[in-house]
């Protein structure tokens, strides 16, 4: 139960930033290096979940990966 709550909160924590970036197109205060490393790390967790057959880990990281990728792309687009 704790892991499920942690996964949901961690995944959903990216939603407010995605909304703000898409609405304002302001990414000046966002660290490119941090989001690049986060997207790569989340992708690797997603692969790990797939290899281990852990669907909860795979799905949570797939959603998080998509959200973080939106922010990373916006950062590159709205420099």
UniProtKB/TrEMBL annotation:
InterPro entries: PQ-loop_rpt, SemiSWEET
TM segment ranges: 29-50, 56-74
GO molecular-function terms, A-Z: sugar transmembrane transporter activity
Subcellular location: Membrane
Protein name: MtN3 and saliva related transmembrane protein
NCBIfam families (alphabetical): SemiSWEET_2
GO annotation, cellular component aspect: membrane
Major location category of this protein: membrane
Keyword Disulfide bond: no
Membrane disposition: Multi-pass membrane protein
Keywords, ordered alphabetically: Membrane, Transmembrane, Transmembrane helix
Database matches in Pfam families: PQ-loop
Recorded superkingdom: Bacteria
């Amino acid at each position: 139960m704790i892991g499920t709550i942690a996964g949901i909160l961690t995944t959903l924590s990216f939603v407010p930033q995605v909304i703000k970036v898409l609405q304002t197109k302001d990414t000046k205060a966002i660290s490119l290096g941090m989001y690049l490393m986060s997207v790569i790390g989340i992708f690797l967790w997603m692969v790990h979940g797939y290899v281990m057959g852990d669907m909860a880990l795979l799905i949570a990281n797939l959603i998080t990966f998509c959200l973080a990728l939106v922010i990373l792309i916006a950062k590159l687009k709205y420099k």
